[in-house]
Amino acid sequence: MRLKALRKQRGISQLKLAMDLGMNQNSISRYENGEREADYKTLIALADYFNVSIDYLLERTDNPVCNR
Asked: Which of helix, strand or coil describes residue 7?
C-alpha cells in the first residue's frame, strides 16, 4: 500500500492522519508496515483523504486520479 509514501509526501505524521480520520495511530503504523490490512471502509477513507483512487492506494495502478 502507498499509504506511507502519500503521508510523507504531504508531511503528515501518523498521529495527525489517525486523528483526522478518527483512528488509532497504531492502526496507521500497522497498515504502513503490512501488519494489518485495511477494510473497505478504511480504504475509502484513506483514498478520500489523499484524493486518490483505491487502486492507486493499493498499487494496482500508477495513475493517482480519482474518477469520482
From this structure: helix
CA distance 56 to 24: 23
**What phi and psi values does residue 10 have, to the nearest 5 degrees?**
-95, 0
Q: What is the pLDDT of residues 10-53, one digit of tens each?
A: 999 999 999 999 999 999 999 999 999 999 999 999 999 999 99
Q: How far apart are CA 49 and CA 4, in angstroms?
A: 13
Q: Are 25 and 12 in contact (CB under 8 A)?
A: no
Q: Are 60 and 16 in contact (CB under 8 A)?
A: no
Question: Using CA atoms, how far apart are residues 39 and 9, in angstroms rounded to an integer?
Answer: 23
Three cell numbers written together for 34:
503490512
